[in-house]
């Protein structure tokens, strides 16, 4: 059984989904629905990270002089963009996808049309990525207007954050393809997403962590995101940037393939 599981997992890693015109149809379908609830969605996207910013940046920040030469509010501003995109991608990719898959039977209806299961999967990941990046952009605009983000380097930083949204979108959709109930997501949320929001250089430098936690943090994708974003915003880009980007691209490709293979099996068989 173990050998068959390993073989199946390796086969899924090399399952490359076919991309066609149906991808845009799935993305457009989600966008049209999003337009009906855009006010509620944008309001939640704006308010939650700003609450963190005011509570930590200006509340706790009164007791912190400077972090790496920045005020505490300036230090955690990039974290607000990153964690906002991560949470939106995760929740939309897991709960949203699982609901369409098991409660609404949306995908089962769609594949009765010329749209293939691969196109459904890629279109869904693309939409989740887009929605998460809308969250990132919304927070970035507010933080820039508040003077907490330097304009220099903001464009490449946003490029890294878009890549991050894809990574967490693919992870979320993959988890949705595995889940048997909504309760399954509690484990990944509490054991994976929440620790990342705390121990990846978001609210304090990684140098403050014990050595064993530093090694653990370097495995987590959000750590590589935060390192690269801060490099661009602070104008201190090093060769580590390439390692970060390669790692994120590899994770995005791996989980997209895993999600596609599992998704197709769940829809077709």
TL;DR of this structure?
With 269 residues, this protein is mostly helical. The protein is built from 11 helices and no strands.
Structure overview:
- This protein is an all-alpha fold and 269 residues long.
- It has one domain.
- The chain is built from eleven helices and no strands.
- It has helices at residues 2-13, 22-36, 38-59, 72-103, 106-110, 117-145, 154-178, 184-199, 211-217, 221-234, 240-268.
- The chain is globular.
- It starts with a helix and ends with a helix.
Characteristic key phrases:
mainly alpha; 11 helices; globular; 269 residues
Derived from helix and strand composition plus strand pairing, the structural class reads mainly alpha
Q: What form results from the Cα inertia axes?
A: globular
Q: What share of residues is helical?
A: over 70%
Q: Could you say how many structural domains there are in total?
A: 1
Distance between the termini: 20 Å
Task: Pick out the low-confidence regions.
Answer: none
Say how many strands there are. 0
Number of helices: 11
Main sheet makeup: none
What sequence of helices (H) and strands (E) makes up the elements?
A: HHHHHHHHHHH
Radius of gyration: 19 Å
Q: Beta fraction of the residues?
A: under 5%
Average pLDDT reading: 89
